[in-house]
Amino acid sequence: MSTVLQQIEINQIEKESYIVKNRSTGKFVKIGERETDYLKFLTSTEYSNDSAISYTGELNSEQQQYLFDKYTEWGFLSNNTAESSGNQTRRHKFKTMFNSDITTIKLATVNPEKFLNSNIKIIKLLFSPLVMLIGLLIMLTSGWMVFNPEVVDVILEYKLNTSVVILLYILIILTICIHELAHAVTCKYFGGRVEKLGVMLFYFNPAMYCDISDVYLFKHKWKKIAVAFSGIFTQWMLSALAIQCYSFLNFFFSYNQPLLLYYALVNFGVGLFNLIPFVKLDGYWILTYVLNITNLRGKSFNYLLSFLKFNPLYRKQYSGKEKAAFLIYGTLSVVYTILLWFTALFSIYKLVNKYSPIAGLTVSLALGSILGLNFIFTMQKQWKSIE
Ligand SMILES: [Zn+2]
């Protein structure tokens, strides 16, 4: 069941839970039955034409006020900001720039929806049992080949030179494009819409992204997991094909191209890195679907902060399972994220330092301060949200 109001879209996903989508920001929020009823009341035309009409549901006035504030904050009650004056819009933009997460900066976006819709037959074919079975067989046989000591020797003895590194880099970039497309294709296959596919800087490293937020509307957990895992799966499939290609050329033409094996190995490693759930990469989304906890990262940080704020009341709202998840995930995530920041900064420092030591230090210190400020702003926001 789906109700579309002017600025929001309400979808029932389970018996008593609903997903509300803000159509202008594309953000999703999961709420319960009573909260949904109240939201429908607030956005109803009778209410907006005559606000003297009063709410007759189960919520008390305190709960109503709380929800009213939340819905306003999420933009559910207002129609776009287009009506606001230029000055206000600019201030809003300025604030957003500082409040947004600079660890993920989006550079360019395309809308693949039309392309996916016109190729829906090919997409359905890709998910047919036969194609899936062939894919699985290719993967299994390549996995088997890797355990051959000769293959390991080829990789170990392979000498990397500049042109090989450049070629490998290009191959990996192409692979990542295919990885993102795989998310889009899987999301489409299960009935979602994919309206954004693009390039971004993730911890200042170039990366691709695909907006598959429609997965929140999927009722089955396994479909969400499938969409999140499809990128890595496809990447590993390409590794497997490279290994098959190597063996084929070697066996029939005695032609030895170790770059194929090297690519397979690096590509496999990139996939593994993507599975680490402590930053918002594919592994993170898979973990949130498995645990069935939305905004796991934000909630975990808030949970840890609530100890610093001596606020045991905040923690009471969560179940034992959730508390354990927040504690373990939050702690590991803090450690991992800090390590990742330092690794990113250090590699930039090393790269620039080759050309000019002063520039190396300046650039890495500047980026470090931006990251630091961003961290303070984020923490401040999180701190305020713990009531
Ligand atoms: Zn991915």
Can you walk me through this structure?
- The chain is an alpha+beta fold and 387 residues long.
- The chain has helices spanning 33-43, 45-49, 61-73, 86-99, 113-118, 120-126, 129-146, 149-157, 162-189, 221-253, 258-275, 282-291, 296-308, 312-315, 320-353, 357-385, and strands at residues 2-4, 8-12, 17-22, 28-32, 104-110, 196-202, 205-211.
- The protein has a four-stranded antiparallel beta sheet. Strands 5-6-7 form a three-stranded antiparallel beta sheet.
- Zinc ion is lined by residues 179, 183, 231, 282.
Coarse structural class: alpha+beta
Strand content: 5-15%
Instruction: Return the average pLDDT rounded to an integer.
Output: 81
Shape: globular
Ligand types: zinc ion
Spans where pLDDT lies below 50 across 5 or more residues: 80-99
In N-to-C order, the SSE pattern is EEEEHHHHEHHHHHEEHHHHHHH
Percent helix, as a range, is 55-70%
InterPro entries: MBTPS2
Organism: Paenibacillus tritici
Keywords: Membrane, Transmembrane, Transmembrane helix
Protein name: M50 family metallopeptidase
Write a concise keyword list for the protein shown above:
Outer Surface Protein A, domain 3; single chain; 10% strand; globular; binds zinc ion; 387 residues; 65% helix; alpha+beta; 16 helices; three-stranded antiparallel beta sheet; four-stranded antiparallel beta sheet
